[in-house]
Amino acid sequence: MSWSRLMRRMRMVLNKHDIEQELDEELRAHVEMETTHLIRGGMPEAEARREALRRFGGVERTKEQVRDERGGRLLEDLAQDLRYGVRSLRRSPGFTLSALLVLALGIGSTVTLFAAVDAVLLEPLPYPGSDRLVRMWPSAPARGIDRGAFSYPNVLDWRESVTSVDLMATYSALPGNYVHLGEDGPVELSTQWVAGDFFEALGVPPALGRPLAQGDAEARSQVAVISQGLWERLFGADESVVGSTFVLDYRSFEIVGVMPAGFAYPLGLDTEVWVPLTVIPEGDIPISLRQVNFLQAFGRLAPSVSLETARQDMTQVAASLADTYPDSNAGVTAASLVSMRDWMVGDVRRSLWVALGAVGLILLLACANVANLLLARGTARSREVALRMSLGAPSERIVRQLLTESLLLSLAGGLAGVSLAWAATAALATRAGTLLPRGVDIGLDGTVLGVALLVALAATAMAGMLPAIKAADVTPARDLRGRSASGGPSALRLRRALVVAEVTLAVLLLSGAGLLGRSLAELSRVDPGFDSEGRIAMTVTIADQKYPERAEWMALYHGILERLERHPDVISSGAIRYLPFRGDGESLPVRVAGLYEPTPEEQRFARMFQLSPGLLDALGMDLLRGREIAATDGAGDPVVVVVNEAFQREFFQGQDPVGRRFDLAGTNQSVEVGGVVQDVLHAGLAERPSPAVYLNNDQVPRIQMSYVVHTAGAPLAMVAEMRRIVREIDADQAISEIVTLEELAAATLARPRFFTGLLGGFALMALVLAALGVYGVLSYMVRSQLRETGLRLALGASAPRVAARVVGQGMQPVVGGLILGLFASMVLTRFLGALLFGVEPLDAPTFAAVIGILGGVAAVACLVPAWHASRVDPMVSIRAE
Amino acid sequence: MPKSKADLLQGTLDLLVLKALTLGPLHGWGISKRIGQMSREVLEVNQGSLYPALHRLQDRGLVSSEWGVSDEGRRAKFYTLTDAGRARFVEERQSWSVFSAAVQHVLQSG
User: Fold this and answer.
1) CA–CA separation, A125 vs A465, rounded Å?
2) A30, A695, A705, A847: which could form a disulfide with A641 (CB 3.0–4.6 Å)?
3) pLDDT at A15
4) CB contact (8 A) between residue A26 and residue B76
């Protein structure tokens, strides 16, 4: 389009009023000239005027066509449509408000969930080139171990031999704490032990100084990289701190670098100090031994190497190591590999997509509802439309006008929805910050706002198209005639179809939420194997650098235990290495003479937990047979252990093991089974219990223990007491954590509870929307059938019969929707798959309940219109028509 | 809605309007009358098509318009052929001759 033409069009739009006037005048001039012409031909004036007008044809239509020919037409129309739309929406505030509310809810929840999916799943990880990062594990296929741990010698061999990764890093699986003695007493700094190309592989350079490298690990240098947060808190952001030393773990470390704020690996872990893992004393973890598997690894793929190629490469390396070191590596013949992203967000992916899917259904439901509202409104406006059409407005024009109105609605609804999403994402970031990886990043950004606009436009198309076409489909002759503006049977059919769709969607959402709810209930019913009521635990890592002799630090351990036991509020107390859900013990190979003598390739493992006598009571673990660990099972005595039921099944083929012996590698001797306890679900409620061995901490001591107290008073009242006891024994000793067992148990349910709550909320919304849909259509139907109802009543039909007939009519599409929804649910609930626990995707009671609830609510929604119908006054209604 | 007949005749109507204007500036009513006279009253121009055509031609820059006073002393909008319009007319007339000759040929053959 040429510039001058564009300018002309712009002028036309701007001077729209003048141009319209001109057109008016031009056409009037034509008619007058024609009239003059006819009068000259001898026609009387009045007749001439009539004839001239007749010859001209429709003035309005001609104007319309002239406008069509002119450029700038679309802009002009849009401006007019917008003005008109705003006016007409303002004229019916009830309709506008309800449509806006429904749209705001639909769009708002969609945008919120999308923001969550975007932040958690779609955004690239905060490591440059993160798509090349992979996590790797050694696997032992014959033993069913897919993701094993590395020993330090093994991980170094992988780093040397695997050519498909450029950089490879390793770190200790469990984050831990180092004590720093500050001015205000001891503080625990969360510490990560790393080696290999940890920082270089992640690709994030330090803000200050240098990162740690493999050289530091090989030299066993006592050097540390600290987080920006710690640098600011502890050193007042002093740049000269690089190169200086500070005391950590009662040793002196040189600070070589500071990592920038926001750096974390894995995401969400607030590490404050990174040190070479070779500074771990051999006496704590013998890291130079090839059988001590405690390390995790990741790496950066070499350019253009695929995940599969790398897997084959690593499998070869693992197999060759298994050949070279059969004592330690037998059976570890393969490698397991996933992308870093899959590893970090993999386990919430399904939950989030399911939630996004659910919210998409809500949006559809909201659109169906608004479409229904628009249809009802279209019917009420059919006279207005008919009038405009008979005045020459083409039907495309009417459709466009009505679509503009829906667009206005959707945009306003979108705006309201975005404000809703703004509040909701903030709440979500707070609530889900710890539940979802990167949950704290959930918020509205450009991408999310763009999607919000798309969603609003899609909502316009979905909700507005059908009603607009329907509304423009009027026959002026019929619809102008009078009061029977009912929209005709086809509009009603459409509205009933929408009710079917709404009920179908609601069934889907309700059954999804129902299944998740049932599975949450099942999960909460699971017996974890211990009691949490009235129990509180304190975890202390004894500073073994300060107490080099075992006898010294064991004295501290016993001191804490004794004082806790003496406390008047304490019913029972004890200590255990790894609280339930906080670690699955140390893995050790087992041999039972005559019963279980595996080859190295088939070797299965038991989990070892150290505890103190009395712990079974303190934690409420049930002793099934035999005796528990006693103080008499002391340091020099023969080792006596308590095993769990899973151990009995796995290694004793179900026979009673009490009094029998087996070989436990970590103790280097044959141990005797003293008793059998009920399985404790250390790894989580949804996990199968592993074979477990419990033994006295005096016999195979560990420095980090969790002291569990069963108190007669409020568990939280013990917090101060526990702190005081530790302080009295050693004022420099830090406490890692104090947590009630109920908190611990609740935390394991937090994520399923969160998602179930989310879906439950959506299901409730769906229920309300569907009920509103049914109600809307039915009350409209009752209103449009007033005359017929009046006739029936006049002819002797009883009020209850009339009411029953209305309910029947209303329930028809509901039943259709229920059946359709049931089929759709049967197909779709299988996608919940792994999210379900203890309940099948095709759970009959859930489906029955959904049908019952929805059917019931729909029936209630039918009752009000039915009651209205039965109260119709025959005389009034018949006369009114 | 039925399509108006003018749509089918659009190309032809534009040509006729351009031709009518080659003789000098004229208002809408005058154009319809002139086309009637020139066709010996065979062609009757529908106003519902004429005015859209005029505005279309103006939008394309083939005619320009100006308010003036008619022979009867009435204010009216006069349309004038622009240079581009004149050039287009010559072009269109050429292709119309070829077209109508061809149609003629088809109808008389065999």
Assistant:
1) 40
2) A695
3) 63
4) yes
Instruction: Provide mean pLDDT across the span A339-357.
Output: 89
B52·A68 Cβ contact <8 A: yes
Q: For A525-584, how does the pLDDT look when each residue is reduced to its tens digit (9 = 90+)?
A: 999 999 999 999 999 988 777 887 888 989 999 999 999 999 999 999 999 999 999 887
Please name every residue paired with A587 in a beta bridge, in sequence order, or none if there are none. A607
Chain B 9-28, residues with CB within 8 Å of chain A CB atoms: 27-28
Quote the CA–CA distance of B76 and A562 in Å, as a whole number: 112
pLDDT at A68 > cutoff 80: no
Can you tell me the distance from the alpha carbon of B45 to that of B50, in angstroms, rounded to the nearest whole number?
7
Q: Residue A183: what pLDDT?
A: 75
Q: What is the DSSP letter of A302?
A: P
A881 part of contact set with chain B, CB < 8 Å:
no
The confidence score (pLDDT) of residue A482 equals 47
Q: CB–CB of A29 and B59 under 8 A?
A: no
pTM for this entry:
0.74
| Helix (H) and strand (E) counts in chain B | 4, 3
> Chain-centre distance of CA A670, in angstroms?
48
- Tell me the Ramachandran region of residue A157: left when phi exceeds 0, alpha when psi lies from -120 to 50, beta otherwise: alpha
Please answer whether residues A502 and A854 qualify as being in contact, where contact means their C-beta atoms are separated by less than 8 angstroms: no
Instruction: Return the HEC string of A102-139.
Output: HHHHHHHHHHHHHHHHHHHHHCCCCCCCHHHEEEEEEE
Chain B interface, mutation test: which of A19, A27, A30, most B Cβ atoms within 10 Å? Answer: A30
**What is the band of A8 on the pLDDT scale with cuts at 50, 70, 90?**
low
Q: Which of B17, B31, B45, B47 to mutate to test the interface with A (most CBs of A within 10 A)?
A: B47
Q: Where are the alpha helices (DSSP H) in A658-734?
A: 718-729
Q: Distances in Å between the alpha carbon of B105 and those of A294, B91, B100, B101? A: 96, 21, 8, 6
- The closest CB to that of B46, out of A30, A37, A57, belongs to A57
Which residue in A371, A382, A377 sits closest to A484, CA to CA?
A382
- CA distances to A370, A761, B40 from A498, in Å: 10, 22, 61
Q: B52 vs A62: CB contact, 8 Å cut-off?
A: yes
Whether the CB of A28 is below 8 Å from some CB of chain B: the reply is no
Interface membership of B55 toward A (CB under 8 Å): yes
Kindly report, residue by residue over B38-82, the tens digit of the pLDDT: 888 777 777 778 888 888 888 888 898 888 888 777 888 899 999
CB contact under 8 A, A66 and B46: no
Q: What is the pLDDT of residue B8?
A: 39
Q: Do B76 and A5 count as a contact with CB atoms less than 8 A apart?
A: no
Average pLDDT over residues A410-421: 91
Average pLDDT, chain A: 87
Considering only CB atoms, A395 lies closest to which of B1, B59, B70, namely B1
Indicate yes or no: CB of A32 within 8 angstroms of CB of B28.
Answer: no
User: The tokens 């083929």 sit on which residue?
Assistant: A653
Q: What is the DSSP letter of B14?
A: H
Per-residue burial over A286-325, b = 16 or more CB atoms within 10 Å of its CB, e = otherwise: ebeebebbbbbbbbbbbeebeeeebbebbbebbeebbeeb
Query: Do the chains contact at A68 and B59, CB–CB below 8 Å?
Result: no
- The SS3 call for residue A531 is coil
Contact B47 A57 (CB under 8 A): yes
Interface membership of B61 toward A (CB under 8 Å): yes
Measured between beta carbons, the chain B residues lying within 8 angstroms of A398 are none
Contact B93/A at CB under 8 A: no
pLDDT over 80 (residue A263): yes
CB–CB contact B29 A33 (8 Å): yes
- Reported as a single tens digit per residue, the pLDDT across A457-511 is 888 888 887 777 777 776 665 555 544 444 566 777 888 888 899 999 999 999 9
Residue A3 banded pLDDT, cuts 50, 70, 90: low
